[in-house]
Amino acid sequence: MKSVLTSSAALLALVLTTPLAYADKANDTLDVAFTKELENVDSYFNSSREGVVLQRAVWDGLIYRDPKTGDYVGNLATEWKWIDDKTLELKLRKGVKFHNGADFTADDVVATVNFVSDIKNGVKTQRNVDWMKGAEKVDDYTVRIMLKAPFPAAIEYLAGPVSIYPKEYYEKVGPSGMGLKPVGTGPYKVESVDPGKHFVLVKNEDYFDGPKGKAKIGKIDIRTIPDVNTQLADLFSGTLDFLWQVPADQAEQMAQMGQFTVANESTMRIGYLTLDSAGRTKSPLTDLKVRQAIAYAIDRKAIVDTLLKGKSKVLHSTCFPSQFGCTEDVPQYSYDPEKAKELLKEAGYPDGFSIEFTGYRDRLYAEAIASYLQAVGIDAKLNMLQYSALREANMKGEEPFTFQTWGSYSISDASASVSQFFKFGSLDDNRDEKVRDWLDIADTSIDPEKRKEYYKKALTRIAEQVYWVPLFTYNTNYVFTKDVAYEPTPDEVLRFVDMSWK
Amino acid sequence: MLSFIARRLGLAALVALTVSALSFGLLFLSGDPASAIAGEGANDADIAAIRSFYGFDRPVIVQYGDWLWSALHGDFGQSYYFQLPVSSLIADRLSVTMTLGVCGIVFALAVAIPLGVAAAVRPNSIVDRLALFLSVVGQAMPSFWFGLLLIVLFAVKLGWLPPSGTQSWTNFVMPTVVLGYYAMPAIMRLTRAGMLEVLGADYIRTARAKGAGEWRVLFKHALRNAVIPVVSLAAVQMGFMLGGSIVVESVFALHGAGFLAWESIGRNDLPTVQALILIFSMFYIVFTFLADILNAWLDPRMRTG
């Protein structure tokens, strides 16, 4: 009996004294939480924000866009020039090594581009790669990338989702092998991957002198914790150092406590209403006056101030304002419920009408919108669906009126927003030939001024016709310990390489 | 006995097959798997590429036949979401759920049976009232809330236990308590009711009359008979726990099989969902089967049945 007692006491003492694995400044480890299970670390085979975050840490693109200035500078390429409007020649950086010790050469670029641009290989987000026809080697440090059609946003894509993989290794292990044991050239090496759950990165001591700079924090330990409340508990107990995507309410409370740094920054995500003006669903929305009434009926400023908060702004155009070609200089609709009622009367709906209204996220915002519409007599019957179900109904042209959002994959070019929806794709509820033709010119012209001119024409017509009601831009909250120095960027990409200890 | 087992196994296989066919059909009804896999903001080309890549353009019945054929050969295919073999994915997640389930049921039985016996020995006493109170609270309190309360107390305030994760055994203490506490009330009430009935039986009076000690009467004679329905209940609870508790696994970030199933349904990850459903239904079948055998051992009358 005595021995049982002593061993229990010893066990208890062990529990009470064993220091929990506090990772912090002292042992140079930053503990970070992801909310969502990341599918595959191979960045060509995931479509989530977490994937972009790891992609920027582990791999490099040929080009780099400075998140502060927006300027393009060389990364794995040092210089580039257009041979013609469909051929881009790049000179590559010498002396770069992959994490497994292999040298980086033109062969890696050619292999990566040819693999990802082949639709048979099933890259998840085709838009990121389907503009490339292929690549060819000129010499060991010179490559040419061939385009299918003139595509001025190419540089932006080469600075974003297109990362260069080691040829030999990738041919051997393929996407699932790459996901389990990623190898890149980036400022962080991957130490371990526990699929969906746990990712450990360590500083790449041999990282080249590139525009990203060298990593300052030795180790990044990322765990997936689905519940935000648990994340906060971990932060308070010291088992986490860094949270992001923290909801506005919690972030506000955390800011009041003053124990942690709370930073808010806008993201590239925009919220908007789609209106079936083409009449695919036979609704009153084919009438311009009705669409205008909806635009006037919603107090977007109040929604931003009370619900989204932070750096969110009211949006007037169908693109993210900092994207190339995007302009807010289009017809704008202020909050004016009387005018909305007037327009409804003129359109022949003095008592309003009722319509199906569908959303897939942020029910709170959708409900606020529905109640503003109710106030002018429009009975918007809100129905929340899974994203894929909404998307499917939308593509079949069965959704007259939806609340949706779009993040442009952090591509800072209007071709990634407005052009995705108004060029007669299955999601195009408006089908305006003028808009389509202007966007085609804007998407493919090499002359930047001409591109701007045509995006503006298209955006102005979309606003005049109220094909969409742009609502607001989203924001995200970052909460981290006072030991960490980090300035978030407005593209919602966590850059571990820019983090340091104070 | 052998034909009894064979019949039971045949029935079990039929149940598993029906469940898997139904779930396969339901998943297709719930939305286009290609657009779910393509994720947010995929365009027509993305979805078309995925549809033909995974063969979703074939009739559902053909796809199910394909899946069944491979599954019968022990190949559950690749997860659409993780692009990893389903078998290794599930083995990894299931180990967490098994640990938690076994700990949870042991905790529940260890607390509920003595408490139930104590409550039955002195009905309407303070012990009985306390047991009743505990079970009402256990039944009424949502487990995510109880979990968060424990986290706030033991992880944030006292700093004794880590709030989340699976790094060490200390991570399993709070989830075990939450999961076990949820299963406890039913077991406790059933033990109490069974004991009350048995203690009034003639053979207990006989046992007492022949001079058997109180402990011997309670645990050798009474509990053995009272516990028979508890075994069946515990087996069902165990099956439920191995099916994973989505809530507990989510609150404590345990990434077990239940959470995987829940998330996989949202992602239309058919191979993963199908394999999990098959495994979960197997758990129920195996545990009810084991409970029958255990009951036969406890109660000789059942052996001849």
From TrEMBL, chain B:
<dbReference type="InterPro" id="IPR000515">
    <property type="entry name" value="MetI-like"/>
</dbReference>
<protein>
    <submittedName>
        <fullName>ABC transporter permease</fullName>
    </submittedName>
</protein>
<keyword id="KW-0472">Membrane</keyword>
<feature type="domain" description="ABC transmembrane type-1">
    <location>
        <begin position="94"/>
        <end position="291"/>
    </location>
</feature>
<comment type="similarity">
    <text>Belongs to the binding-protein-dependent transport system permease family.</text>
</comment>
<dbReference type="Pfam" id="PF00528">
    <property type="entry name" value="BPD_transp_1"/>
</dbReference>
<dbReference type="Pfam" id="PF19300">
    <property type="entry name" value="BPD_transp_1_N"/>
</dbReference>
<feature type="transmembrane region" description="Helical">
    <location>
        <begin position="130"/>
        <end position="156"/>
    </location>
</feature>
<dbReference type="InterPro" id="IPR045621">
    <property type="entry name" value="BPD_transp_1_N"/>
</dbReference>
<keyword id="KW-1133">Transmembrane helix</keyword>
<feature type="transmembrane region" description="Helical">
    <location>
        <begin position="168"/>
        <end position="187"/>
    </location>
</feature>
<feature type="transmembrane region" description="Helical">
    <location>
        <begin position="226"/>
        <end position="255"/>
    </location>
</feature>
<keyword id="KW-0812">Transmembrane</keyword>
<keyword id="KW-0813">Transport</keyword>
<feature type="transmembrane region" description="Helical">
    <location>
        <begin position="275"/>
        <end position="298"/>
    </location>
</feature>
<dbReference type="InterPro" id="IPR035906">
    <property type="entry name" value="MetI-like_sf"/>
</dbReference>
<keyword id="KW-1003">Cell membrane</keyword>
<feature type="transmembrane region" description="Helical">
    <location>
        <begin position="94"/>
        <end position="118"/>
    </location>
</feature>
